[in-house]
From TrEMBL:
Adenine glycosylase active on G-A mispairs. MutY also corrects error-prone DNA synthesis past GO lesions which are due to the oxidatively damaged form of guanine: 7,8-dihydro-8-oxoguanine (8-oxo-dGTP). Its cofactor is [4Fe-4S] cluster. InterPro entries: A/G_AdeGlyc_MutY, DNA_glycosylase, HhH-GPD_domain, HhH_base_excis_C, HhH_motif, MIG/MutY, MutY_C, NUDIX_hydrolase-like_dom_sf. It comes from Litorimonas cladophorae. It holds the Pfam family HHH. It comes from the Bacteria. Its EC number is 3.2.2.31. Residues 48-197 form the HhH-GPD domain. It catalyses: Hydrolyzes free adenine bases from 7,8-dihydro-8-oxoguanine:adenine mismatched double-stranded DNA, leaving an apurinic site. This is Adenine DNA glycosylase. Belongs to the Nth/MutY family. GO terms for molecular function: 4 iron, 4 sulfur cluster binding; 8-oxo-7,8-dihydroguanine DNA N-glycosylase activity; adenine/guanine mispair binding; metal ion binding; oxidized purine DNA binding; purine-specific mismatch base pair DNA N-glycosylase activity. Binds 1 [4Fe-4S] cluster. SMART domains: ENDO3c.
Length: 342
């Protein structure tokens, strides 16, 4: 049922005809014409598009390449500028690592972005998936690219029964049995495309799938049973207060400490975030705080509920005042909007 050569041939044929055209992607016909992928641009696209949609990530990718055309430009940039350009993409540790990684490439690799998997894995913020992807796309290294999309496709094709995350390593090994030295970059991108467009989580369009005849889950009409996952515990909730000190449309902001969630980002003061609703004991100074309701924001591992309080202060108070929240992480944009609402 699983003839690897036939599966690869079917997938690559499908990719040649119907794979996605993405701004950073070198399509097979362009590659044949001599276009070479830029590892810096591929790296940016991979880091930015994790955990978000391509439509959301693409404007950021364009803006970064315009502001920092090379990895050395990014390394030389002020980190605060990089962080504020990242605002809205979430997962801010990634932005800090992005800047750090650019510095390492500048200082330890003569400003030339590495393209082999082993070296890529030594760089800050580059994990197995990103290293495998860059190496396959940019250096035609026969790496095993596995992301959530690939896990879904492979687990369905083989009706892989071990629940994730326990079965992740074995599923990865299974995926590796399909890797060959022939067109590894196109193969990896094809597999990711298949998962992103056809083999979708809830409604796979198996009729259009190049692996339909190989797919065990499809033959059993059990496509959505896979990947089997251990039942998730409900998302924990954390609570806190957020304080908006405002003067007309301007808000006083501060830089958060480097460590922890949203480390190094600009925000408004908050209390610590705890497992139970909090009180005012950590409020900055004593003011006439006006309650502005609650905002909710979902992070990867928890949901945050912040009770927002606002107070009018004099514009002469020293600090950083902003009237444009576009440089703030999304959670603080929500807080400021609530704090400024009448
Ligand atoms: S046949 Fe359906 S379930 Fe199987 S890999 Fe293709 S789209 Fe996914």
């Amino acid at each position: 049922m699983h003839n690897v050569s036939d599966m690869r041939a079917a997938l690559l044929r499908w990719y040649d005809e119907q794979g996605r055209t993405l701004p950073w992607r070198v399509r097979p016909e362009d590659r044949a014409a001599g276009v070479v992928p830029d590892p810096y641009a591929i790296w940016l696209s991979e880091v930015m598009s994790q955990q978000t949609t391509l439509a959301h990530a693409t404007p950021y990718w364009r803006a970064f390449l315009e502001a920092f055309p090379s990895v050395v430009d990014l390394a030389d940039a002020n980190r605060d500028v990089v962080l504020s350009m990242w605002a809205g993409l979430g997962y801010y540790a990634r932005a800090r690592n992005l800047h750090k990684c650019a510095g390492v490439v500048r200082d330890d690799h003569l400003g030339i972005f590495p393209t082999d998997e082993k070296t890529l894995l030594t760089l800050p913020g580059i994990g197995p998936y990103t290293a495998a992807t860059i190496a396959a796309i940019c250096a035609d290294e026969a790496t095993n690219i596995v992301d959530g999309n690939v896990e879904r496709v492979i687990s369905r094709t083989y009706a892989f029964e071990t629940p994730l995350p326990k079965g992740r390593k074995a599923l990865r090994d299974l995926s590796g049995t399909l890797v060959r030295a022939d067109r590894p970059g196109d193969y990896g991108q094809a597999l990711m495309d298949l998962g992103a467009t056809i083999c979708s989580p809830k409604n796979p369009t198996c009729l259009l799938c190049p692996w339909r005849e190989f797919c065990v889950a499809h033959s059993q009409s059990e496509e959505t049973k896979y990947p089997v996952k251990v039942k998730k515990k409900p998302t924990p909730i954390r609570y806190g207060h957020a304080y908006v000190l405002r003067c007309e449309d301007k808000v006083l902001v501060e830089r958060r400490p480097d460590s922890g969630l949203l480390g190094g980002m600009i925000g408004v003061p908050t209390t610590d975030w705890g497992d139970a609703p909090t009180d005012h004991s950590q409020a900055p100074l004593h003011r006439n705080w006006e309650s502005k309701g609650q905002i909710r924001h979902v992070f990867t591992h928890f949901e945050l509920r912040l009770d927002v309080f606002a107070a009018e202060i004099e514009a002469s108070v020293e600090g950083v005042w902003v009237d444009d929240t576009s440089g703030l992480p999304t959670v603080f944009t929500k807080v400021v909007e609530a704090g400024l609402a009448d």
